[in-house]
Amino acid sequence: MASVVGVESPLALYRRYRPETFAEVIGQDHVTEPLRAALASNRVNHAYLFSGPRGCGKTTSARILARALNCELAPVADPCGQCQSCRDLARGGPGSIDVIEIDAASHGGVDDARDLREKAFFAPVRSRYKVYVIDEAHMVTTQGFNALLKLVEEPPPHLRFIFATTEPDKVIPTIRSRTHHYPFRLIPPRLLSSYLGELCAREGVPIEPAAVPMVVRAGAGSARDTLSVLDQLLGGPARPGSPTSWPPGCSATPRTRCSTRSSTPSPPVTAGPSSAWSTRSSRPGRTRAASPRTSCAGCATW
Ligand SMILES: Nc1ncnc2c1ncn2[C@@H]1O[C@H](COP(=O)(O)OP(=O)(O)O)[C@@H](O)[C@H]1O
Ligand SMILES: [Mg+2]
Ligand SMILES: [Zn+2]
Q1: Angle between helices 142-153 and 110-120 (to 10 degrees)
Q2: What local confidence, expressed as pLDDT, does residue 142 receive?
Q3: Considering all CA atoms of the chain, what is the largest pairwise distance in Å, rounded to the nearest integer?
Q4: Residue 48 and residue 180 in contact, taking contact as beta carbons nearer than 8 Å
Q5: Cα of 137 to ligand 2 centre, how many Å?
Q6: CA 244 to CA 235: how far, in whole Å?
Q7: In the beta sheet, which residues pair with residue 207?
Q8: How far apart are CA 146 and CA 55, in angstroms?
Q9: What would the CATH number be for the domain defined by 11-183?
Q10: Ligand 1 centre from 19 Cα, in Å?
Q11: More confident residue, 73 or 282
Q12: How many angstroms does the Cα of residue 122 sit away from the middle of ligand 1?
């Protein structure tokens, strides 16, 4: 059978550049630094809640935390990247039987929770910890959460939970109070701009300086959305070797992004990045919505 490997299109930029260490996660030092400290001193809590806007690093950080917890050199602040566990949990790696990612959007019911509860008591197969990453945790039903309550409150020593959600208020308070809560933030434009420059250099693609702020604005503080916009530009009109620029009249990216966004308000965004967004994106005489959740900045300027 003819191989199709040679004609496969590359993975999306945001998948190829998913950070593998906390050092690669941008704009979330208020989360990554305390986590690194807890890892280094072997004081990692049994349950975490990562909340915040989409595409800002919640799932990525949950995976890095799981990787560091199970690194053979643990306790370590950063996964070594070399040991078997780190290699299994690397980007594109086969994964680990002891790190279980559950998408609560499709597995958030009470039966799923009971199933998890039963399996969770078995010790990890190959690693130090059995880590459950429960993504889209706001989709776990109330009954599902109640079925997990006792386990999250007093887990066996080999168990760690990381809940990730855009809507922490929908995680029932009894579960929330048993976690350490870290709110992720929108990423300031300054950081996204330099990140884009870095990625373009790594991709060997020249980008017109004027295009950078437009891409950043269209991404509205989400690293994933920003990389998707860049991907669309790279895959679009540019000829090989020609500088990437915003295609004249291109309407697709910001508008489609905007309409697919959740209408949920962002969780509380604290001083730094939030003020960076509002000061950077507002012009004299014109007030733009500070929250890109409801009005994408890209659309607002288009
Ligand atoms: N803080 C960040 N630093 C660098 N890249 C990021 C960051 N947040 C998100 N990304 C990019 O976006 C992608 C999706 O991130 P993810 O962690 O899944 O977001 P979410 O917060 O929605 O869980 C990652 O693969 C990565 O490429
Ligand atoms: Mg996620
Ligand atoms: Zn390791």
Answers
A1: 20
A2: 96
A3: 64
A4: yes
A5: 10
A6: 10
A7: 244
A8: 28
A9: 3.40.50.300
A10: 8
A11: 73
A12: 31
Query: What pLDDT does residue 49 have?
Result: 98
250-255 contact pairs (CB < 8 A, 24+): 251/302, 253/218, 253/228, 253/229, 253/298, 254/218, 254/229, 254/296, 254/298, 254/299, 254/302, 255/299, 255/302
**What DSSP state is assigned to residue 68?**
H
pTM for this entry: 0.81
The HSE-up count of residue 211 (CA atoms within 13 Å, CB side) is 21
Start and end residues for every CATH 3.40.50.300 domain found in the chain: 11-183
- With a Cβ cut-off of 6 Å, ligand 1 is lined by 14-15, 17-19, 25-28, 54-60, 164, 187, 223-224, 227
Closest ligand 1 atom number to CA of residue 224: 12
Type of residue found at 115: D
Whether the CB-CB separation of 78 and 291 falls below 8 Å is answered with: no
Question: What's the half-sphere exposure (Cβ side, CA atoms, 13 Å) at 223?
Answer: 28
Report residue 174 as tokens.
């009894």
Nearest to 48 by CA among 170, 159, 186: 159
Q: What is the pLDDT of residues 77-91, one digit of tens each?
A: 999 999 999 999 999
Cα 192 to averaged position of ligand 1 atoms, centre (Å): 12
Angle separating helix axes 211-219 and 189-203, nearest 10 degrees: 120
> 124-136: buried (b, 16+ CB within 10 Å) or exposed (e) per residue?
beebbbbbbbbbb
* Pocket mutation for ligand 1, best pick of 17, 18, 198, 260 (most atoms within 8 Å of C-beta): 18
DSSP of 261-275: S--SPPPP--HHHHH
